[in-house]
Amino acid sequence: MRPLLGHDAIHPDIDRTVSTYYSDIVQEVSEAIGANGVVIVGMKHNPFVKKARKTLQEAGIEFKYLEYGSYTSQWHKRLSLKMWSGWATFPMIFVDQTLIGGYNELQALLKNPDAKLTSLTRV
User: Fold this and answer.
1) 52 CB contacts (<8 Å, ≥6 apart)?
2) Which domain holds residue 103?
3) In angstroms, how far is CA 63 from the centroid of its own chain?
4) DSSP-assigned letter for residue 112
5) Could you tell me which residue ranges the Glutaredoxin domain spans (predicted)?
6) In this structure, what CATH number is given to the domain that contains residue 56?
7) pTM
């Protein structure tokens, strides 16, 4: 497991900056995860985000999509999500309030008949 820097290892002068870095975006994503079975967090022009959305649409699986900029815009917002989730790439896909990974992991779960993720059930 990847170690995380402990709260006690962050100097008090920067603690608030670290803990509130684009917290509104993290809150927005958290609320979407709580209110929807499947959430895709992505960005413009990313082919894997497009593939994930298309895959779910073709499978008849409902999802909520949140988009934060492109390769050259809103990178701070995306960085806050990477820091929060520990997942370094987009899309970030959440199923039943659990981060399952990105497009490749979604493909693997859809092919796995033993996957116990109810929100990946076709509508």
Assistant:
1) 40, 42, 91, 93, 102, 103, 106
2) 12-120
3) 12
4) -
5) 39-100
6) 3.40.30.10
7) 0.91
